[in-house]
Design brief:
The longest helix has 29 residues, at about 70-100. The protein is mainly alpha-helical and about 180 residues long. The radius of gyration is 23 Å and the shape is elongated. It has eight helices and no strands. Helix 2 packs antiparallel against helix 3 (about 40-65), helix 5 runs antiparallel to helix 6 (about 130-145) and helix 6 runs antiparallel to helix 7 (about 155-165). The protein has two domains: about 5-65, no CATH class; about 70-179, no CATH class. It starts with a helix and ends with a helix. It has helices spanning about 5-15, 20-40, 40-65, 70-100, 105-125, 130-145, 155-165, 170-179.
Length: about 180
């Protein structure tokens, strides 16, 4: 019997295997696992199984990226991310020249709707790019949260939650029309 952790790893790997090859690949892997389990310890067979999964991962990832639209999705998300950063730069510049205080709060207030709009257009051009944009926003915001600045904790939490989530509302209307 396969250990539950190995079952989870197998399920995750199966998402990358093309559907027409999935049953054969996973069947061969399970068959080899069963044969090895009769002659070797469970830990040795488990390590062998994990090595097989790990060895398969790079080629399956490459196949998934090149055979699907992930490269164009990633490119669209990157363009949207750059547009969001440029928008934030322009918002900061305008706020600094127009308002004496409350820069960070106003920046957040104007930036979130702008990112929602960018995410909406991004998703309209390339499906799932708003999700990738949200992940990019999260990855870029986390270091800013812990940079040691003296901004209030509520503002840091707001950036952490609203920044990535702002890209996602664009998915909802498009998903409903595409179904």
């Amino acid at each position: 019997m396969i250990h539950p952790a190995l079952r989870i790893a197998t399920r995750m790997l199966s998402w990358l295997v093309p559907p027409d090859h999935r049953q054969a690949l996973l069947g061969d892997l399970a068959e080899e696992y069963a044969q090895r389990a009769r002659h070797h310890s469970s830990s040795a067979v488990g390590w062998w199984y994990l090595r097989q999964l790990g060895a398969s991962l790079p080629s399956l990832l490459w196949f998934a990226l090149t055979q699907t639209a992930w490269l164009s999705t990633l490119g669209m998300a990157l363009l949207a991310f750059l547009a969001a950063n440029e928008t934030q730069f322009l918002i900061r510049q305008r706020i600094a020249s127009s308002f004496a205080g409350a820069h960070a709060e106003l920046n957040l207030m104007f930036f979130v709707p702008a990112v929602a709009l960018i995410g909406y257009f991004s998703e309209g051009l390339r499906r799932r790019s708003a999700i990738v944009l949200g992940v990019m926003m999260l990855v870029s915001i986390i270091p800013m949260i812990f940079d040691g600045s003296n901004s209030p904790v509520w503002l840091r939490i707001a950036w952490l939650l609203l920044g990535p989530v702002a890209a996602l509302p664009g998915i909802l209307p498009l998903r409903a029309t595409r179904s």
